[in-house]
Amino acid sequence: MCLIFPTDGDMAAINALDKAASSFFSHYDLAMVEWFVKMVEKRRTKHDSRK
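RE: above sequence
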C-alpha cells in the first residue's frame, strides 16, 4: 500500500478553492427548489436523455 500525503503547496491550492459558503441548499427554501426544478427542466429540453 502506498500512501500519498499532500504537500504544503497542495494544501494551499485546496484552501484557495474554498468559497467560504455551503454548496448545499435548503430543500425548504421555496426559491431554491423552484430554481432547481427550472434548471432540471431546462436541461431535459436541451439533452436527449435516451442516450
